[in-house]
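Section handout 9: paired folding examples.
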Amino acid sequence: MSELFDQDPRDTAPPPRNGRSRALIITAVVLVLAFFGLTTFASIYTDRLWFTDTGYGGVFSTLLWTRVVLFLVFGTLMAVAVGAAMWVAFRTRPLFHPSSPEQTGLDRYREAVTPIRTWLLVGISVVLGVFAGTSGIGQWRNYLLWRNGTDFGQEDAEFGKDIGFFVFDLPWLHFLVDYTMAVLVVALIASAVVNYLYGGIRLQSPGDRLSGSAQAQLSVLVGLFVLVKALDYWLDRFDVAYQSGSLIDGVKYTDANAVLPAKNILMGIAVICAILFFVNVWRRTWMLPSVGIALLAVSAILLGMIWPAIMQQFQVKPSEADKEAEYIARNIEATRAAYDLDDVVVAPYSGSAPDVGAGGIATATSSVPLVDPQLVRDTFEQNQQGRAYYSVADVLDVDRYELNGQERALVLGARELDQQNLNDGDKNWSNLHTVYTHGSGIIAAYANQRGTDDNSPGTEIQWAEGNQGVDQDALTTAAGPDGYESRIYFGEQSPDYSVIGKESADSTSVELGLSGANDDDERTTTYDGDGGVPIGSTFRQLMYAIKFGETNFLLSGRVNGNSEVIYNRTPRERVEKVAPWLTIDDDAYPAIVDGKIVWILDGYTTTDRYPGSQRESFEEMTDDSLQQDTGLQTLPTDEINYMRNAVKATVDAYDGTVTLYAWDEDDPILKAWRSAFPGTVEDRSEMSDQLIEHVRYPEDLFKVQRYQFARYHVTDPGDWYQGNDRWAVPTDPKAGSNSLQPPYRLFVNVPEVEAEDGTQLPGGQQWALTSNFVPFGRNNLASFATVNSDATSDDYGRITVLQMQDQNTDGPGTIAAQINTDDEVRGLLRSFETGDSPISYGNLLTAPVAGGLMHIQPIYAARLGASGGYPILQYVVVAIGDRVGIGETLIKAISDALGEDVPDQPTPGTPPDEGGTDPGAGEQSVEQLLQDAQAALDDANAALADGDLAGYQDGVEKANDLIADAIELSGVDPTTTPSADASETPSEEATPAG
């Protein structure tokens, strides 16, 4: 190493050093390095233990070695390039320096550097190499996608290249080019500094200011830089395909006719400049290279900036709609494809009052949820909390279960551990990390039922699962023959870590909790699952003491030879750790699947490089009045222009097992990640039937789609440019701000609609996620959107948009204003507003009913007690057409709005063999029943034409039965309804009964 540099004849002996100061400096450096080294080792070592324990050791190995290799490769390249440039500059330095004030001044620096120049060269190279290697580590995503990417099977409109090139190849190629340019710039600077220090560059010399060797070295480095810049211009051409613009993203008229030709010209000029610099190695004149660089700079300004601006201002803007029409069409097509909007079905809808009576409306809306998951948290805790150290989420979840033979919507939440509610005296390390370790069970209430039925005013919500006042624990009963594990060690409110496991089988259990999911008795227990990392050895205890900064891992008697530590406990955190390439949905929700509580999460694959697609902020697109957090920490950038729900993930609430399932198996980005991390994502076919029943359409994806569809439902470029039919998501009337109305999950009756290709798509009741659209800047209702959220249905994921034919249909804001100003509503609520029971408005829900619309809003009042207050459902308000009704139940509200008595309705959830109606019978609309009746009459007439009198009689009787059902559903007086008579009646016996 010491022979890298020759000894300069002017070198003098170094000054003596202070030995004690040197020893102190070395000791301090060693201690600092030891500290960082030990903490880094502890972090990596404990991470390896965690990944191995969860069964994802392959993910840890792939991430670790990918980062190590990238660090070493790019760090070494930078260090070698810079070191070589400095070494060459020194080895080719002039042997004699001309006498000048400049050189005399530099002599002092040369004398100071001489004793340490070898170490200085190595140190500078290593430091720069570390910085370069660190930048390489940050490219692990781009590297793995480049290495494992496949074709999309679609080409972009401008360049004719497969979309996979833009998504997988281009980011990595850009990094390589940018990295190479950075290396050349740093090497050029280092070479220039050494040449100047040792006389190769003489700024004040009357003769040649550069030695021949210095000129050759600098010419080669600058020539290489300009040559790589030519490659950068070539890659920049493809960036135009997804660059942001004021009108649209992607290629526009000016880009295609000015920017792209300019890039090609600049690329050619850069190649010529590079050649001139290479020739300069022998010609020893800077005239031609200087002219080339000047030409490149001037061309970059004229062709790259001024000419496109002139074209945009004087050629495009005067007729922008015509000039950009082709490119707007491309943008529409790409955006709809990137956000999976191509198959959205838009159908005309009247939006008027429903075409049925009060009875029909009551039947069609009997499954609409009245229990608001945003408001009843306190109700859940007051009635089903069990212990003060338990709580539920601020906003509860809505899911469906098959109970008593019928699908029911439930509002539910996990009863999780909440250590914030412990007394201050109990918040010591032993209690926080070894005693209070887990939650217990699910709390659930029927979303559309109070008391035993909806005809019981004043009763509270009906519990389907809990630990107090529950006659039938429906979810536990439905769990299966293998029992039900109620303990929740992994949840959204779980503490950072817990130490579990007792020293021997005879030792006393110390973990405190309820004795069962539906039992209020307290007991101690010991975790016996597989979700913990063993920490029995002193070495592991030391590593975790360093990781968590806690000495009790080494000192506490609660940590023994059988102890395990569980950490990384929130569902999102666990999924993000094992699949760092996914963007996780904001809402993880609990479900009872195969006898266990599991958290279900949706994982997205995203990119911001889909050519031609509109790029927007993920956070902005998913923002609404309920939004609390996003998956931004897993996104390389907040801006995206492609999204797929590629993965469904589950996290076992007891043992923390993480399972990833490929949901969109055709997604090219998912295919690339599955190739990069083989064996981590299971096939969709591995999902159990019970799990499929609880899979639902993800909210964040639907929010992103509705955000884009608000503008991209328009497919004509001219109309899109004018923006006349642009929609927007309405603001939430109850939020009291500009927050957008969130999508709501409920059972809705979707009418039969016709797709663009003429296919008739069936209607009926669907478990759906719904949203409203209003015209941009207005309050009228433009459309109502639903997406089928039933994963067991063939129509799962089908988005249906009912577009209002009446442009004056009231939107949510107008409906809310009608409710708030209605005299009857104001009169009933006045006593609450002036008393001690404040009013809270629930979600304003919209439901299509028999060709019309109905709006429903529950109203809650606070029930005050000694232990605190909680909201109870006081009234239900409905808006049907221009009529508003209020009542203690939904049925009474409908009756009040229409001025009609509602026939007795079956108790929600009553199975057919217990006196209720068939769950499917009441879900058909009057229109559908009459269509079926007409079809039966057609069959009857066909049978009559064939001489089949028995078939004719059967058809007529079936038609009459269907007509009778329609009359009952509509609430119309049957005495005024004509019979389904046939004109070709052959005899009295064949005449259908009236």
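Moving on to protein 2 of 2.
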Amino acid sequence: MGSSHNLFITLLVILLLLLSCSFLVASNHPCLEDQSLALLQMKQSFSLGCSSVSLFDSSAGNISSWAIDKDCCSWDGITCDSNTGHVIGLNLTNNCLSGRLDSNNSLFHLLHLQKLTLFGNDFNLSPIPSEFGTLTRLTHLNLSDSVFSGQIPVEISQLTNLVSLDLSRNYGLKLSHPGFRSLIQHHSTLRELNLAGVDMSAEVNYDWAQTVSLALPELRVLSLSNCSLSGPIDASLLSLQYLSELYLDSNNFSSTVPDFLGSITSLTSLHLSNCRFYGEFPRNIFQLPKLQSLHISFNPELTGYLPEFPQNSALRFLDVHSTKLHGKLPHSLGNLKFLIELDLSNCSFKGPIPPSVVNLTHLESLDLSSNLLSGQIQSSLFYLPSLLELYLYANQFTSIVEEPQHSNYSFTSSFCFNSSISPSPSVSLLEDLQLNNNQLRGKIPRFIFHLTCLLNLDISSNYLSDVVDFDMFNATSLSDLDISNSGLWFTNNNRANSTSPQLYTFFARSCNISEFPDFLRYQETPLNIDLSNNKISGKIPSWIWKFSLYTMNLSHNLLTGIDLVGLASKLPLQMLVLDLHSNQIQEESPSGNYFSRTNSTSLILGNISSYLLGESYRGNPIVFSISDNKLAGRIPPTICNSNFPNIFDLSNNQLGGRIPECLTNFSNSVVLNLRGNNFHGTIPQNFIGGNLRSLNLNNNQLEGNLPRSLVNCKSLEVLDLGNNLINDTFPSWLGGLPKLWVLVLRSNKFHGSIRGPPRAENGFPMLHIIDLSFNSFTGHLPSKYFQSLKAMIAVKRDKSSLRYIGDSYYQDSVKVTIKGQEVMYGRIIEMFTTIDLSGNAFEGEIPQALGNLKSLMVLNLSRNCLAGQIPSALGHLTQLESLDLSQNKLSGQIPVELVDLTFLSVLNLSRNNLSGSIPQGRQFGTFENTSYAGNLGLCGPPLSRKCELDDATTVHQNSTSGLSKQEKEDLASIILDWKFLALGYGSGVIVGVIIGWQIIPNWRIEAFFKLTSRKRRVHGGR
């Protein structure tokens, strides 16, 4: 009996072992041959765009490791069914696949796929193949960020088992025919839908919200960011009872934010940035119980206040920047104890920072910049235990208070960047601190120098009064330091050594520095230096070239030379910007004496072109400026062999000789400024065009003809050749340059008549500034050209934001004549327009076509031989601020229509043959006798010669008829305001007017326009 029982037990154990082995074999079923073959064929259909496997995403499969001699189920990124060996999962995230995904690709032979991820590859804008519809077992499909384009195929709707569908960030995809409804109507089990970046602007998708609500009842995540959606958001989204994440950024809803969003209590993430929302933001959205992430930034017309946040708030990320939210920061901010990032920048918040902010122990980034916050900043804010980034710039803070617990400076940088540190109120992990553009006064609290984890510190543009040296900064990891224009005096203690912080950026503009800071000697990292507008004198030392410089700005100092001794042994360099303008740098002969001979080569430019810009130079120089110095001699021929910079500015020196031909042959040249030197000979004849945007050769001694090759410069915006000896006819052939904005040919020897353009498109369509003054042009004024100056015809009404010609580093300048004096505009405002044809021999009448140039601000036709009457059409130049018709042969009366030029602040009609009564009212009440001198037939104020009664009454009635006594008094007051501005800002009339919009009270501006509009109604308008 016992033996039978033992035998039974033995047999049972054997059976269990056999079953176990069978299970183990089944659970490791090898890859099927057809599956392996399909995968290898798919791999071969693409090229790998990455040069190194290190670029692959380590969390996904590395397709380059697939080998035919291994089981495909063991390949990276492959998941197989353990029972059948079919491939059920394929993850090729960021595998650098490159090539088209065609419909016959072997990928579509893997019919058992359940999860497919092709995120982060490049399929060369190929359409999504309809064959995806054959992979009906798919539950997860991710084709995001893979450079697909075209219509999303309707076959995707056949994948009825999908739980997650992600087609986002394929910015060539669209949903039009069929539309959104056709795509998702059979996906009732879908929980995550991400179509961010898909163009859904077609009208068929107008009801997207209702479609989602009806078709996807199980939806948890919906992302339709940047889908070109418009119109209000429909309340049907309320029916999505499981919805937790809603991303609708970067659409064009142009509506108020719907209140119902505050009732979707399941929401954990809500992103509504950049959607053109306006009106008051519903406060109850802030208080959603599960909400962890709220982004409503870049809605500049969105208003409202921050609410009282509940104690149990789950918020971790709150971003409202660039809205019009305002008011004081509530004390309840301290209730957001899980908050990680808080961005309230560029709003209108005011008042102090609430003390409760110290409760935000998980906060890593705090941005309160660009508001109206004021008061003191407590040091405890800098010691929040998790805080890494603190941005308080562009506010009205006046001081920083160092609390007693933060006066112990024993903390060392060994704690920095160590995630194992336990939070402590006496330890600061702050890495980025920006306090610039405030009203901080007094001394810098010493704890600032002992924030030893700091990487970036910006305290520029304040009102501090303190003396600092580099040795005070104990943050050995400090890489970016800006103390510019802060009121600080930076001293040189000569105690710096190799343990000093290795900076990447050191900006110390306007810090009363008189010598190069000694710590720079010990810098080994590539460096950006700005020491401009200081008092540094002597030579630029040779040791400064020993380390790699990216940018160096030493402009506006007292430097006299450059020590380049041994520079060749300190290469290669990789400087992008070298700005030495506005110093006293001058040439020095080998014997050490300074010279100014123009028949010698400039030694400084020779050294710079050989070393700083020479063949061993590494990189692409962007800016080289040594303008407004005392360089002399010729430009050396070595400049032709250099790495020519994009911006090359030698203006206002004493250089001479001929301009090297090669300077016009560099395709990367953007700005060439040789203004204010002694160059002679002809302008180089071979302009290859390229990227040249600005050419300024003004105030030299250049002669000959204009080079016809300038027509190759299709990017040219500024051409200034004034004050030379150029002898040529009007260059009508330049009229076809599509971007030409400024044309200055004044004070040369141009001659002949100016005929109309051969074709309308060759009529200088973008020209804003044209100065042909003081030449020898003859004939009639070019009426046809006035009709083709399209940029001067359209009125630019937005005076609130000033934009300038040029880029962030170099902005063009131009001289214009106002009140008979040349005025240099250091920057050219895009909206500024002027025509100056003075000092020529034009004859005939002033053409009526000038009246079409409604954006014209300055018109100068003085010193010609013009005859006939002043055309009444000049009264249509509603933006005109300066009008000079003096020293001609004009006759007849001054048109009363000129009284309508309400911005006119400069008028000169002197030395003509005008007669009759001077119009009265508006701006004409501000002009002096000199505006009319030399016209013996004129009468009436401001002249002492009185008019006959009939004439005076007629003029007065035409000027002020229809206005009440009070309106006339208001008008006189307004005129005085504008007169004050014009006088207060001298000849800068344009600036005066623009500032006037901000200075004059709104009620006066409104009254001004009411008076103007009423007069036009009374007289029928013009």
